[in-house]
Amino acid sequence: CRSGFYKAFAGNIKCSKCPPHSQTFVEATSVCQCEKGYFRAEKDPATMACTRPPSAPRNVIFNINETALMLEWSPPSDTGGRKDLTYSVICKKCGSDASQCEICGGGIRFIPRHTGLINSSVTVLDFVSHVNYTFEIEAMNGVSELSFSPKQFTAITITTDQD
Question: What is the pLDDT of residues 28-49, one digit of tens each?
Fold first, then answer.
């Protein structure tokens, strides 16, 4: 096969054009290499387009009462070309200065959980009053872990001033 084409298997089959966001630079190759910033997950077939991590979730809103904090958000504007989107929520307790943040630790509970979320919402329980909480919400897909780019997330800071 000439440059820009590949043949996944040896034999009497026609050469195929490289999938989107991939290329070959040498003749007679069995797989096309992904462009910079694009990736193919280990289980993705060679015929699949190369994809990229998603952008950050959008439009975070919250609703809080005495016992529960509900966080909801919109999916990212760019899914990276994949359908295997999940979300993670990281909780940080912050002082008056945003540089004085620390991970919340075991006291906070997330329903259903804080990682591997399929839906774009989570409920937070067992938070403490009179604390500044920052929640970082990250969208991920099957190639997020392959990228060296900084994680894309949306953050919201909430002060719990109820007793």
Answer: 788 899 999 999 999 999 889 9
Give the list of residues 6+ apart from residue 56 with CB closer than 8 angstroms, or none: 76, 137, 138, 139, 152, 153, 154
Q: How far apart are CA 109 and CA 120, in angstroms?
A: 17
For 66, other C-beta atoms within 10 Å of its C-beta total 8
**pTM assigned to the model:** 0.84
45 vs 22: CA distance, rounded Å:
13
For residues 10-38, b (16+ Cβ closer than 10 Å) or e, as one string? eeeeeeeebbebbebeeeebebbbbeeeb
Residue 98 has pLDDT above 70, yes or no: no
